[in-house]
Write a structure and sequence with these properties.
Elements (H helix, E strand, L loop, with lengths): L5 E6 L2 E8 L3 E6 L8 H6 L4 E6 L16 H16 L4 E6 L2 H11 L4 E7 L10 H9 L5 H12 L11 H9 L4 H13 L3 H6 L4 E6 L7 H6 L5 E6 L8 H14 L10
Parallel strand pairs: 3-4, 3-5, 5-6, 6-7, 7-8
Antiparallel strand pairs: 1-2, 2-4
Helix pairs in contact: 2-3, 5-6, 5-7
Length: about 270
């Protein structure tokens, strides 16, 4: 992304940094909270879509809110970003990991705002997250713990199941985007209590659910077993939760296919 594509808007009173690139139908991309994997999708679709990639509040270059950061709050923030920055045009939306949770929330509470939805390794039921992750989240309520947990994460990552293949440099990138450890931990606690199953089933738009075949911090059984008439599934071989270059290329190919005019996916 070129620096000229980086813009700023005030959304829910929060200074929000976002990227905009391309021309055509609007494409809203919500990145994962532990790394930037969305820019390549916007670059690859810029000839047909006008892509918007906001930094969620408390992450990267966006300010943290004064109130607690929760899934519901971010669902409202997504609505405000859509209306104030993109305009009230229906959008195709793509979300990664935890970002999928509040985008599902937004789609369910604002029918007609999103016309197609792509979810990569989504968190559907927070209670099914790995026990080690829930233990970290529980510990975050201790005063001063959020900053210590974020600071120590790169050293702890290789010891944890589901992320052992993440390289040393990438471990630091996982936390470099957390500008507010307090907000990140507040959101993590909200995610642990959240269940998006009913909201996802309530959607009457085409949904493509994508997962990799490699180890992940998101339970694949939940993704694989989810069934709804308008939801289809796509498996990317040799791709993990933290996309490498090859994974990004496969993800871009899947999104391009999904964005083809009048292309609908249905469960097998």
């Amino acid at each position: 992304m070129n620096l000229r594509d980086s813009l700023t808007a005030f959304v829910k009173g929060i200074r929000t940094r976002y990227l905009r690139r391309g021309r055509g139908s609007p494409l809203l991309v919500i990145p994962g909270l532990l790394g930037r994997r969305a820019d390549s999708v916007v670059e690859a679709t810029e000839s047909t879509h006008e892509g918007y990639v906001p930094d969620p509040p408390g992450f990267w270059e966006s300010e943290a809110p004064k109130e607690a950061l929760t899934v519901s709050w971010l669902g409202d923030w997504s609505s405000d970003f859509h209306g104030e920055v993109i305009g009230r045009r229906p959008v195709t939306a793509l979300a990664f990991s935890a970002g999928a949770t509040f985008l599902i929330r937004y789609a369910a509470t604002h029918p007609g705002a999103i016309e197609r939805l792509v979810l990569f390794e989504p968190v559907i039921r927070g209670r099914e997250l790995p026990g080690w992750l829930k233990a970290f989240i529980a510990a975050s309520v201790i005063p001063g713990a959020p900053r210590l947990l974020v600071k120590g994460a790169p050293q702890l990552v290789p010891l944890l199941p589901g992320v052992s293949r993440v390289g040393w440099k990438k471990r630091f990138r996982l936390v470099e985007g957390i500008s507010s450890p307090q907000s990140a931990c507040e959101l993590a606690r909200s995610l642990c209590r959240w269940d998006a199953t009913d909201e996802l089933r309530s959607l009457d738009i085409p949904v493509l659910m994508v997962r990799g075949t490699q180890e992940s911090i998101v339970p694949h059984d939940t993704i694989v077993s989810f069934r709804s008439p308008n939801v289809s599934h796509l498996e990317l071989p040799d791709v993990g939760h933290f996309l490498n270059r090859a994974g990004q290329e496969r993800m871009v190919e899947a999104v391009r296919d999904f964005l083809k005019p009048r292309r609908f996916f249905w469960s097998q």
